[in-house]
Amino acid sequence: MRRIDFETHFVTRDYVRAMEQQKGYPRYVVDEQTKNRRLYYTDDVGEPLGDLLLNKLLDVGEERLKDMDAAGIDVQVLSLTSPGVEQFDPSMGTELATRINDELYSIVQNHPSRFVGYAALAPKNPEGAVRELERSVKELGFKGWKTHSNYGGTYLDDKEYWPILEKAEELDVPIYLHPAVPAIPPLRKYGFALAGAPFGFGIETAICMMRLIYSGIFDKCPRLKIVLGHLGEGLPFVLQRIDFAYVRPWFEPAARPNLKKKPSEYLKENVFVTTSGNYLQPAFMCTYEAMGIDRILLSTDYPYEDSDECLQFLESLPINDEDKDKMYSLNAGHLGIIF
């Protein structure tokens, strides 16, 4: 049974140059004293980005394939790394996304049995993003769009972005909703340790997902599919709790959001989750029981996480081989990826 890895990241040299030349945020900055590079999402959150990691992001050839083979990964779904192009000036972001997608197309064509592409888009230019998503799917053969949990001061549920969501449903491709540093200032007080992968990433992505539900977009686009990493960013744990306003008899009916279903139903019907970077067995079993194995996808978060550690963890789980086959590759078919 093949293993299809749904969250793996890359950069192009073009993207690196753009991040180095940025005057605002996000941007890459090299400290003159320590000579260490950091990715600054905001002026108060900088993530270390050493040469070893950057070189792995740049490598989409033999060394990456060797790492895949060593871990037992057959196929990587490649997407532009965080923070993407979403927070750039719309014109610059649109132009850069097109170039990145063209380069990703060439990467996939060089190794069509090993790589699949997810488009990069600049949603602050919604019309351009719609056109680029259609081009990426119909002409470049990409299987979805990977975006981030906020665009600075705006979120994906804002009505200006609905045309992109509607186009994704029309094209029948999923949206991988990846974390970004929180837009909420108190979550940035202690830098990347609070705002980044250890905590803030998951909080921010869960907020974005819940906003999407309450916006009503899934009533308008019932076939829209969202993918969340890290075993669902904590949402499976609160799957019952988020329905409070709908099931408590004393809750004022007029205060309930105008939705056709309970929030938990949208999570179970419109959302898939991946295994990226959350290797705690109780967390997996919660997701497994709350969402069901048909909603779980393999993901290693390469190169930020260790692919070997991910596969060793998954192999150790107390689930049967049939369920593992679903997680490793069969469920990918529901999202248009079949090998």
Which CATH architecture is right? Answer: Alpha-Beta Barrel
CATH topology descriptor: TIM Barrel
Stretches where pLDDT is under 50 for at least 5 consecutive residues are none
Can you count the helices? Answer: 14
- Overall pLDDT level: 96
Helix and strand run: EHEEEHHEHEHEHEHHHEHHEHEHH
The strand order across the widest sheet is 7-8-9-10-11
* Percent of sequence in beta strands: 5-15%
**Main sheet specs:** 5 strands, parallel
Number of strands: 11
Give me the Rg, rounded: 19 Å
The rounded distance between the terminal residues' Cα atoms is: 10 Å
Number of domains: 1
Question: What would CATH call the class?
Answer: Alpha Beta
Structural class: alpha/beta
What's the overall geometry? globular
Assign the CATH superfamily.
Metal-dependent hydrolases
Fraction in helix: 25-40%
Can you tell me about this structure?
- By secondary structure, the chain is α/β, with parallel strands linked by helices.
- It has one domain: Metal-dependent hydrolases (TIM Barrel), CATH 3.20.20.140.
- It has a 5-stranded parallel β-sheet. A 3-stranded parallel β-sheet has the order 1-5-6. A 3-stranded antiparallel β-sheet has the order 2-3-4.
- The longest helix is centred in the first third of the chain and has 21 residues.
- The radius of gyration is 19 Å and the shape is globular.
- The relative contact order is 0.13.
- The mean pLDDT is 96.
